[in-house]
Write a structure and sequence with these properties.
The protein is α/β, with parallel strands linked by helices. It has helices at residues 85-99, 106-118, 132-143, 159-162, 196-199, 203-208, 243-246, 260-271, 290-301, 307-321, 332-348, 356-367, 375-379, 384-394, and strands at residues 122-125, 147-151, 163-168, 173-178, 185-189, 210-213, 216-219, 225-230, 251-254, 326-328, 372-373. The chain has a 5-stranded parallel beta sheet. A hairpin with a 2-residue loop joins strand 6 and strand 7 (216-219).
């Protein structure tokens, strides 16, 4: 988190054959390597595009007529820009803007951008005071997206989230009053503090991008992403999320406590007059918008996935279903989620094809909340992270 390089990387640095997932909260245990920065390209030497078995086929160049030799002082022709470079640059600038308000959570910013590219939802887990709310507000400001915050409490009703019918005495009719769910980024703060009845009010919105009131479906804006937060250390008065709802979150991102240098920077900013409620004064400005995200999603949809990589994703997910430490493995929805996040990560890394390294890099944040440990494994200290490490080490990697 503290050793950051410009994003996206210009050239991938050589590294071990199997990279660590660039996500916060990854406890590198067993055979897992040490974590790497969130914005770094997947570790390991990258093959040239014309030699990779995952690269899309290219047509042979046509022969061109000979041209005069340019003069010695002529500047070399500029290399052609890769498709989507302008969009990648815009999304990279989002990290810079969010960094004006939030310190040391670059990996979470990358995860949120991947979720926006995949039209998925995110579960943020961290102790109080690690800037979860500020992170979402800063991201919405940098992307010029609407956002609303709902504080989930035990007495919150489903209609308080989705909206409800209100009687209008002037017309003697009922009219629909939209709830806070009608936005681009919905911050569901402490989602596990509300009963399952209210939690379930988000199921249709998260899956169908609509809410149904009085039998009439109403479409939600595009993009629509739920960013839910929960506290991992306080369990009194909470209602654990059911597996069906956890499976609807594309990513689960862990926000750790900041490093000492980052915490010093936070206090220095506050001493200089930083106000987390005034992002404009902090200099956060919009550098992308919903149209840029839509065009970026079109680019991600063109990322090629070879049959070997598809088989690798399936083998990883099937291996979790036979793990002796798990009572519930990854569902087919989890497999499609891992494929989608891997494509987005490959596109952000500047490639038009997915490699096994991309799959490994996104395995932990995409799958950690989709598996359920057996009680005896929890007693022995086994975690979802260590189980995924074992699965990644045991499933053969296509090369």
């Amino acid at each position: 988190m503290t050793d950051e390089t410009p994003y996206p990387p210009a050239t991938p640095a050589p590294g071990p054959e199997r990279p660590a997932a660039p996500w916060p909260g990854h406890d590198a245990g067993g055979d897992a390597p040490a974590p790497t920065p969130a914005h770094a390209a997947p570790a390991g030497p990258q093959p040239p595009a014309d030699a990779s078995p995952y690269a899309p086929p290219t047509a042979a160049p046509a022969l061109a007529p000979a041209s005069p030799t340019p003069p010695a002082h002529a500047a070399p022709p500029a290399p052609a820009a890769a498709p989507g470079d302008d969009l990648r640059t815009a999304l990279a600038a989002v990290r810079t803007e969010v960094g004006k308000a939030v310190v040391g959570q670059d990996a979470a910013v990358t995860g949120l951008i991947i979720a926006l590219l995949c039209r998925g939802h995110v579960l943020l887990e961290g102790v109080p005071g690690v800037a979860k709310t500020l992170l979402v507000r800063s991201l919405s400001g940098a992307l010029e997206l609407g956002t609303t915050r709902v504080q989930f409490t035990p007495d919150l009703m489903p209609g308080d989230v989705t909206g409800s019918l209100v009687y209008d005495a002037r017309t003697a009719e009922f009219s629909f009053r939209e709830g806070p769910v009608f936005t681009n980024l919905l911050l569901a703060d402490e989602i596990n503090r509300t009963p399952p009845k209210t939690q379930a009010s988000l199921l249709e919105a998260m899956e169908e991008r609509q809410v149904t009131v009085d039998g009439q479906p109403r479409r939600l804006p595009d993009p629509f992403v739920v960013v839910a937060t929960q506290n991992p250390v306080e369990y009194e008065g909470t209602y654990p999320l059911p597996e069906a709802q956890l499976d609807r979150f594309l990513l689960k991102l862990l926000l750790p406590l900041p490093e000492r240098a980052d915490e010093v920077e936070v206090l220095t900013r506050h001493a200089a007059g930083f106000d987390p409620r005034d992002l404009r004064a902090a200099g956060v400005r919009a550098v992308a918008d919903a149209d840029a995200l839509a065009r970026a999603r079109e680019q991600v949809a063109r990322v090629q996935v070879g049959p070997e990589v598809v088989g690798y994703v399936v083998d990883l997910c099937r291996a979790t279903r036979t793990s002796p430490s798990l009572s519930l493995g990854v569902s087919p929805r989890g497999a499609t989620a891992l494929l989608a996040t891997s494509r987005a990560w490959a596109w952000l890394s500047g490639r038009s094809y997915v490699t096994p390294d991309d799959v490994q890099a996104l395995a932990h944040p995409t799958l950690r909340h989709r598996v359920q440990l057996r009680p005896e494994a929890e007693i022995e200290g086994v975690t979802a992270e260590t189980v995924l490490d074992t699965v990644l080490a045991s499933v053969p990697v296509p090369r």
